[in-house]
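Budget justification aside, the reviewers requested a transparent look at the raw inputs and outputs of the sequence design task funded under Objective 1. We therefore reproduce one unedited record. The lines immediately below are the structure tokens for a 257-residue chain.
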């Protein structure tokens, strides 16, 4: 039996002031699956996210969400004024989640030690984990993550992607993720939707990475990225890229999750 479709878009188009932002886009996101949306700047990725969140309506086509769906959203970045101190705990409490839920989610995401820290003092990786915790506090059926690895180095990105896969596995939610780099997210996604106003190609990440339309947009994978993607993980990194401990054996050649 196929997983429940959480959100289905059919022949989606959005036109603003006579300008076509996206056209003829189809996608389906099922519970327990990770869909990654990629494309160049101006391709319509943000428009698709806004449609998924229900912030805008399509000019043409239809978007259908399962009844009673709960959506957790992680923005690309968070701008906080230095003149308004806000601790991590207070930021998470703004969700109105009970204290035990905040503590449990902070533990799951490894940010318990940061709960008393000011949001403004967090590193890029720490901020992204806190934003992800905030998105999870509503017990979402669907997680929408807009460039979740923004401002994190390559090793920290692999660690965050592993965390996202683990959350999908333990919580059974669907994940819609925007990424600028397919090859760093390949091991952490089930399906890729490559768009440039319209759907250029879609499917399994390995197939998309070799598709002529993808290669036209992004070119072949450069050797530096390939080295990062395939290097053996005989140790783990934290979100700053520091090695936190080494393993006694080699994993397979892909970053996990």
């Amino acid at each position: 039996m196929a997983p429940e479709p959480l959100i289905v878009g059919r022949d989606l188009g959005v036109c603003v002031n006579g300008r076509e932002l996206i056209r003829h886009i189809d996608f389906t996101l099922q519970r327990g699956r990770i869909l990654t949306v990629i494309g160049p700047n101006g391709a319509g990725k943000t428009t698709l996210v806004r449609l998924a969140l229900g912030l805008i309506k399509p000019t043409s086509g239809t978007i259908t969400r399962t009844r009673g769906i709960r959506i957790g959203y992680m923005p690309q970045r968070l701008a906080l004024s230095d003149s308004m101190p806000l601790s991590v705990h207070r930021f998470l409490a703004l969700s109105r989640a009970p204290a035990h839920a905040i503590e449990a989610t902070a533990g799951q995401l490894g940010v318990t030690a940061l709960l008393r820290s000011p949001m403004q003092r967090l590193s890029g990786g720490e901020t992204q984990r806190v934003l992800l915790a905030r998105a999870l506090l509503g017990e979402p059926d669907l997680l929408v993550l807009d460039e979740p690895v923004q401002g994190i180095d390559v090793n920290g990105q692999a660690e965050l992607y592993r965390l996202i896969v683990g959350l999908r596995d333990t919580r059974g939610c669907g994940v819609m993720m925007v990424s600028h780099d397919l090859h760093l997210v390949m091991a952490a996604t089930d399906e890729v939707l490559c768009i440039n106003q319209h759907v250029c190609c879609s499917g399994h990440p390995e197939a998309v990475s070799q598709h002529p339309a993808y290669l036209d947009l992004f070119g072949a994978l450069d050797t530096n990225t390939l080295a990062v993607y395939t290097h053996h993980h005989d140790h783990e990194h934290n979100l700053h890229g520091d090695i936190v401990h080494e393993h006694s054996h080699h994993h397979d050649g892909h970053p996990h999750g």
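The longest strand covers residues 5-16. The radius of gyration is 19 Å. Computational costs for records of this kind are itemized in the attached budget.
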